[in-house]
Write a structure and sequence with these properties.
Pfam families: Fer2, Fer2_2. This protein is 37% helix and 14% strand. By secondary structure, it is α+β, with helices and mostly antiparallel strands. Strands 2-1-5-3-4 form a five-stranded mixed sheet, sandwiched between helices. The protein starts with a strand and ends with a helix.
């Protein structure tokens, strides 16, 4: 058994310890807001917060997550909720598939740096790909949130 703390709740899961966290979150626990994009650590769709920092859950074996505080897009933290509000105001998503990962990366950035520069926003958000090209609105929503 592996014990995971996700969105403030403990979950005991009986799975292969090498299973990626992404599949445990989605298929075993049922938080489906975290998305599968590439499965190779390249697109950022699967981002979750681990102790406040964004990680690619498709690349993290579930056994490495014991004792960590995991937050998904369904979780509630001050920065995540403020960004979600700003996202809605700026009407950011188009198809929406990548947006939970985008929001998690933005949350991680604000957790570590509450007032990022334009260059820092660009650098941090380069971890996430959006096929609809919503980058301008994403940056606008982040800037609005930190103003
Ligand atoms: Fe994990 Fe693309 S699905 S980085």
């Amino acid at each position: 058994m592996i014990t995971l703390k996700i969105n403030g709740k403990e979950h005991e899961v009986d799975v292969d310890p090498t299973m990626p966290l992404l599949w445990v979150i989605r298929d075993i626990i049922g938080y489906t807001g975290t998305k599968f994009g590439c499965g190779k650590g390249l697109c950022g769709a699967c981002m979750v917060l681990m102790d406040g920092n964004a990680v690619n859950s498709c690349q993290m074996p579930v056994s490495a997550m014991e004792g960590k505080e995991i937050i998904t897009i369904e979780g509630k933290t001050e920065n995540l909720q403020a960004l979600q509000k700003s996202w809605a105001e700026f009407n950011v998503p188009q198809c929406g598939f990548c947006q939970s990962g985008q929001l998690i990366t933005a949350t991680s950035m604000l957790n570590n740096n509450p007032n990022p520069s334009e260059a820092e926003i660009n650098g941090n958000m380069s971890r996430n790909i959006c096929r609809c090209g919503t980058y301008t609105r994403i940056k606008g929503a982040i800037k609005h949130c930190v103003e």
